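Quick one - first record:
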Amino acid sequence: MKILLDECVPVQVRNAFYDHEVHSATAPPWSGLSNGDLLVRAELDGFDLLVVADKNMRYQQDLSVRHLAVLELWTNHRPTLEREFSYIRAVAERMAPRQYLQLSAP
Protein backbone atom coordinates (compact mmCIF):
# COMPACT_ATOMS: atom_id res chain seq x y z
CA MET A 1 0.00 0.00 0.00
CA LYS A 2 1.25 3.50 -0.84
CA ILE A 3 0.45 5.90 2.02
CA LEU A 4 0.75 9.68 2.36
CA LEU A 5 0.76 11.31 5.80
CA ASP A 6 -0.73 14.81 5.85
CA GLU A 7 1.46 17.64 7.19
CA CYS A 8 -0.32 17.69 10.56
CA VAL A 9 0.28 13.96 11.15
CA PRO A 10 3.52 13.24 13.03
CA VAL A 11 6.07 11.72 10.69
CA GLN A 12 6.65 8.93 13.25
CA VAL A 13 3.27 7.47 12.25
CA ARG A 14 5.16 5.99 9.28
CA ASN A 15 6.42 3.38 11.76
CA ALA A 16 2.90 1.98 12.03
CA PHE A 17 3.20 1.00 8.37
CA TYR A 18 6.69 -0.52 8.42
CA ASP A 19 6.17 -2.76 5.38
CA HIS A 20 4.32 -0.21 3.24
CA GLU A 21 5.59 2.70 1.15
CA VAL A 22 5.02 5.79 3.29
CA HIS A 23 5.71 9.45 2.49
CA SER A 24 5.05 12.62 4.46
CA ALA A 25 3.43 15.74 3.04
CA THR A 26 6.02 17.72 5.00
CA ALA A 27 8.45 16.95 2.17
CA PRO A 28 8.46 18.17 -1.44
CA PRO A 29 6.55 17.96 -3.69
CA TRP A 30 3.60 17.81 -1.29
CA SER A 31 4.66 20.36 1.34
CA GLY A 32 2.59 23.51 1.46
CA LEU A 33 -0.23 22.23 -0.74
CA SER A 34 -3.81 23.04 0.20
CA ASN A 35 -6.02 20.06 1.08
CA GLY A 36 -7.66 20.09 -2.35
CA ASP A 37 -4.35 20.24 -4.19
CA LEU A 38 -2.89 17.59 -1.90
CA LEU A 39 -5.76 15.21 -2.68
CA VAL A 40 -5.33 15.71 -6.42
CA ARG A 41 -1.54 15.31 -6.24
CA ALA A 42 -1.81 12.22 -4.01
CA GLU A 43 -4.07 10.52 -6.54
CA LEU A 44 -1.85 11.50 -9.47
CA ASP A 45 1.14 10.07 -7.57
CA GLY A 46 -0.68 6.76 -7.07
CA PHE A 47 -1.32 6.84 -3.34
CA ASP A 48 -3.86 4.39 -1.93
CA LEU A 49 -4.35 6.09 1.43
CA LEU A 50 -4.10 9.60 2.87
CA VAL A 51 -3.79 9.78 6.66
CA VAL A 52 -4.96 13.07 8.17
CA ALA A 53 -5.66 14.60 11.56
CA ASP A 54 -7.61 17.49 10.03
CA LYS A 55 -11.16 17.31 11.38
CA ASN A 56 -12.44 19.71 8.71
CA MET A 57 -11.26 18.01 5.53
CA ARG A 58 -14.45 15.99 5.09
CA TYR A 59 -16.50 19.21 5.24
CA GLN A 60 -14.20 21.29 3.03
CA GLN A 61 -13.52 18.78 0.24
CA ASP A 62 -15.79 16.71 -2.00
CA LEU A 63 -14.27 13.33 -1.14
CA SER A 64 -16.92 11.43 -3.10
CA VAL A 65 -14.99 12.11 -6.32
CA ARG A 66 -11.71 10.81 -4.90
CA HIS A 67 -10.33 7.34 -5.54
CA LEU A 68 -7.94 7.10 -2.61
CA ALA A 69 -9.04 6.21 0.90
CA VAL A 70 -8.77 8.83 3.67
CA LEU A 71 -8.18 7.91 7.29
CA GLU A 72 -8.83 10.67 9.83
CA LEU A 73 -7.01 10.11 13.13
CA TRP A 74 -8.62 11.19 16.41
CA THR A 75 -5.51 13.16 17.44
CA ASN A 76 -2.13 14.27 16.19
CA HIS A 77 -0.47 13.83 19.59
CA ARG A 78 2.58 11.72 18.76
CA PRO A 79 2.92 9.75 22.04
CA THR A 80 -0.78 8.84 21.96
CA LEU A 81 -0.56 7.67 18.35
CA GLU A 82 2.63 5.69 18.99
CA ARG A 83 0.82 3.62 21.63
CA GLU A 84 -1.86 2.75 19.06
CA PHE A 85 0.22 1.89 15.98
CA SER A 86 -1.15 -1.64 15.72
CA TYR A 87 -4.73 -0.32 15.91
CA ILE A 88 -4.10 2.34 13.26
CA ARG A 89 -2.38 -0.16 10.99
CA ALA A 90 -5.15 -2.78 11.31
CA VAL A 91 -7.86 -0.26 10.44
CA ALA A 92 -5.88 1.24 7.54
CA GLU A 93 -5.19 -2.14 5.99
CA ARG A 94 -8.93 -2.91 5.87
CA MET A 95 -9.88 0.33 4.13
CA ALA A 96 -11.23 0.24 0.59
CA PRO A 97 -10.63 2.76 -2.18
CA ARG A 98 -12.86 5.86 -1.88
CA GLN A 99 -13.56 5.12 1.79
CA TYR A 100 -13.42 7.91 4.37
CA LEU A 101 -13.08 6.78 7.95
CA GLN A 102 -13.02 8.89 11.08
CA LEU A 103 -10.98 6.78 13.48
CA SER A 104 -12.07 7.02 17.11
CA ALA A 105 -9.73 6.59 20.06
CA PRO A 106 -9.54 2.91 21.05
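second record:
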Amino acid sequence: MTGNDEMIILGCVGRAKGLDGSFRLVLYNPDSTQLDHTEELLVQGPAGQQETLHLIGQQRIGEKGVRIVQVREITSRTEAEQRKGWSLVVAKSALPPVSEGEFYYHEMPGFLVETEAGDLIGTIKQVIGTNIEIFVIDRSGGGELLIPVIEDMVCVIDRAQRRVVVVNDIEERFEDVL
Protein backbone atom coordinates (compact mmCIF):
# COMPACT_ATOMS: atom_id res chain seq x y z
CA MET A 1 0.00 0.00 0.00
CA THR A 2 1.36 3.42 -0.93
CA GLY A 3 0.70 6.65 0.93
CA ASN A 4 -1.49 7.84 -1.95
CA ASP A 5 -3.44 4.62 -2.26
CA GLU A 6 -7.20 5.12 -2.56
CA MET A 7 -9.17 3.63 0.30
CA ILE A 8 -12.28 1.59 -0.45
CA ILE A 9 -15.06 1.39 2.14
CA LEU A 10 -16.09 -2.22 2.82
CA GLY A 11 -18.53 -1.60 5.66
CA CYS A 12 -19.00 0.18 8.94
CA VAL A 13 -18.65 -0.27 12.67
CA GLY A 14 -22.04 -0.82 14.25
CA ARG A 15 -23.22 -0.76 17.83
CA ALA A 16 -21.35 -2.26 20.75
CA LYS A 17 -22.17 -5.82 21.77
CA GLY A 18 -21.65 -6.71 25.42
CA LEU A 19 -19.21 -5.13 27.87
CA ASP A 20 -15.87 -6.50 26.58
CA GLY A 21 -15.46 -4.10 23.62
CA SER A 22 -16.99 -6.40 21.02
CA PHE A 23 -18.97 -4.66 18.30
CA ARG A 24 -21.05 -5.31 15.22
CA LEU A 25 -19.30 -4.94 11.88
CA VAL A 26 -21.66 -4.45 8.93
CA LEU A 27 -20.26 -5.39 5.52
CA TYR A 28 -21.76 -3.56 2.54
CA ASN A 29 -21.28 -6.67 0.42
CA PRO A 30 -22.82 -9.39 2.59
CA ASP A 31 -21.22 -12.13 0.47
CA SER A 32 -17.72 -10.73 0.86
CA THR A 33 -15.03 -13.10 2.10
CA GLN A 34 -12.53 -10.24 2.56
CA LEU A 35 -12.44 -10.72 6.35
CA ASP A 36 -12.35 -14.51 6.42
CA HIS A 37 -8.56 -14.77 6.49
CA THR A 38 -7.43 -11.48 7.97
CA GLU A 39 -5.92 -10.68 11.34
CA GLU A 40 -6.19 -6.89 11.05
CA LEU A 41 -8.94 -4.39 10.36
CA LEU A 42 -8.37 -0.83 9.22
CA VAL A 43 -11.07 1.58 10.37
CA GLN A 44 -11.43 5.24 9.49
CA GLY A 45 -13.15 7.88 11.57
CA PRO A 46 -15.21 10.84 10.40
CA ALA A 47 -12.20 13.18 10.42
CA GLY A 48 -10.17 10.75 8.30
CA GLN A 49 -8.16 9.34 11.21
CA GLN A 50 -7.25 5.69 10.71
CA GLU A 51 -6.70 2.96 13.25
CA THR A 52 -5.41 -0.56 12.74
CA LEU A 53 -7.23 -3.08 14.90
CA HIS A 54 -5.97 -6.62 15.58
CA LEU A 55 -8.66 -9.29 15.58
CA ILE A 56 -9.03 -11.58 18.56
CA GLY A 57 -12.14 -13.19 17.16
CA GLN A 58 -15.07 -12.76 14.83
CA GLN A 59 -18.38 -14.50 14.49
CA ARG A 60 -20.99 -14.39 11.76
CA ILE A 61 -24.46 -13.88 13.16
CA GLY A 62 -27.85 -14.62 11.67
CA GLU A 63 -28.10 -11.28 9.89
CA LYS A 64 -26.33 -11.61 6.54
CA GLY A 65 -23.24 -9.42 6.23
CA VAL A 66 -23.02 -8.72 9.96
CA ARG A 67 -20.29 -10.03 12.22
CA ILE A 68 -19.51 -9.61 15.87
CA VAL A 69 -15.81 -8.83 16.24
CA GLN A 70 -13.47 -8.45 19.16
CA VAL A 71 -10.15 -6.64 18.78
CA ARG A 72 -7.15 -6.22 21.03
CA GLU A 73 -7.28 -2.40 21.04
CA ILE A 74 -10.90 -2.03 22.21
CA THR A 75 -11.58 -3.50 25.63
CA SER A 76 -14.74 -1.77 26.83
CA ARG A 77 -18.23 -1.01 25.62
CA THR A 78 -17.46 2.73 25.85
CA GLU A 79 -14.46 2.39 23.54
CA ALA A 80 -16.54 0.38 21.06
CA GLU A 81 -19.35 2.96 21.11
CA GLN A 82 -16.82 5.72 20.33
CA ARG A 83 -16.11 4.06 16.99
CA LYS A 84 -19.72 3.48 15.97
CA GLY A 85 -20.21 4.75 12.42
CA TRP A 86 -16.51 4.52 11.53
CA SER A 87 -15.81 2.98 8.13
CA LEU A 88 -14.08 -0.34 7.57
CA VAL A 89 -11.63 0.42 4.76
CA VAL A 90 -9.05 -1.35 2.64
CA ALA A 91 -6.45 0.01 0.26
CA LYS A 92 -7.59 -0.37 -3.34
CA SER A 93 -4.25 -2.00 -4.17
CA ALA A 94 -4.89 -4.70 -1.54
CA LEU A 95 -8.09 -5.94 -3.18
CA PRO A 96 -7.75 -9.28 -4.96
CA PRO A 97 -8.23 -9.27 -8.73
CA VAL A 98 -11.72 -10.03 -9.97
CA SER A 99 -12.60 -12.87 -12.33
CA GLU A 100 -14.06 -12.49 -15.80
CA GLY A 101 -17.55 -10.96 -15.61
CA GLU A 102 -17.11 -9.84 -11.99
CA PHE A 103 -16.66 -6.31 -10.72
CA TYR A 104 -16.19 -4.23 -7.61
CA TYR A 105 -19.06 -1.90 -6.77
CA HIS A 106 -16.74 1.10 -6.39
CA GLU A 107 -15.45 0.89 -9.97
CA MET A 108 -18.82 0.87 -11.77
CA PRO A 109 -20.03 4.49 -11.41
CA GLY A 110 -19.25 6.30 -14.64
CA PHE A 111 -19.43 3.21 -16.89
CA LEU A 112 -21.41 3.88 -20.07
CA VAL A 113 -24.46 1.68 -20.62
CA GLU A 114 -25.45 0.90 -24.18
CA THR A 115 -27.59 -1.62 -26.00
CA GLU A 116 -26.28 -4.45 -28.15
CA ALA A 117 -27.10 -2.21 -31.13
CA GLY A 118 -24.85 0.53 -29.73
CA ASP A 119 -27.58 2.93 -28.54
CA LEU A 120 -26.55 4.89 -25.45
CA ILE A 121 -28.83 4.33 -22.46
CA GLY A 122 -26.87 6.39 -19.93
CA THR A 123 -24.21 6.15 -17.25
CA ILE A 124 -24.04 4.01 -14.13
CA LYS A 125 -24.65 6.19 -11.09
CA GLN A 126 -24.30 3.48 -8.43
CA VAL A 127 -24.63 -0.22 -7.72
CA ILE A 128 -27.13 -1.45 -5.16
CA GLY A 129 -26.33 -4.78 -3.58
CA THR A 130 -29.35 -6.91 -2.72
CA ASN A 131 -29.85 -10.60 -3.45
CA ILE A 132 -28.71 -9.53 -6.92
CA GLU A 133 -26.81 -6.42 -7.92
CA ILE A 134 -28.78 -3.56 -9.46
CA PHE A 135 -27.23 -0.83 -11.62
CA VAL A 136 -28.75 2.61 -11.09
CA ILE A 137 -28.46 4.33 -14.47
CA ASP A 138 -28.65 8.07 -15.09
CA ARG A 139 -30.53 7.95 -18.42
CA SER A 140 -29.15 10.14 -21.20
CA GLY A 141 -32.71 11.32 -21.88
CA GLY A 142 -33.33 12.15 -18.21
CA GLY A 143 -34.46 10.17 -15.22
CA GLU A 144 -33.13 6.93 -13.80
CA LEU A 145 -33.37 3.31 -14.83
CA LEU A 146 -32.74 0.38 -12.48
CA ILE A 147 -31.29 -2.66 -14.22
CA PRO A 148 -30.84 -5.96 -12.37
CA VAL A 149 -27.47 -7.50 -13.19
CA ILE A 150 -28.71 -10.80 -14.57
CA GLU A 151 -27.78 -12.72 -17.69
CA ASP A 152 -31.14 -12.01 -19.39
CA MET A 153 -30.46 -8.27 -19.30
CA VAL A 154 -26.73 -7.60 -19.04
CA CYS A 155 -24.74 -9.04 -21.94
CA VAL A 156 -21.24 -7.68 -21.30
CA ILE A 157 -19.40 -5.89 -18.51
CA ASP A 158 -16.29 -4.48 -20.20
CA ARG A 159 -14.06 -3.16 -17.41
CA ALA A 160 -11.26 -2.17 -19.81
CA GLN A 161 -13.59 0.04 -21.89
CA ARG A 162 -15.67 1.11 -18.83
CA ARG A 163 -18.93 0.11 -20.48
CA VAL A 164 -21.84 -2.26 -19.98
CA VAL A 165 -23.83 -3.73 -22.85
CA VAL A 166 -27.48 -4.57 -22.20
CA VAL A 167 -30.20 -6.19 -24.31
CA ASN A 168 -31.74 -4.03 -27.03
CA ASP A 169 -35.22 -3.94 -25.49
CA ILE A 170 -34.11 -3.04 -21.94
CA GLU A 171 -36.18 0.15 -21.76
CA GLU A 172 -39.32 -1.58 -23.10
CA ARG A 173 -39.00 -4.22 -20.38
CA PHE A 174 -39.35 -1.49 -17.78
CA GLU A 175 -41.70 0.92 -19.54
CA ASP A 176 -44.43 0.39 -16.93
CA VAL A 177 -42.16 1.71 -14.18
CA LEU A 178 -40.58 4.62 -16.08
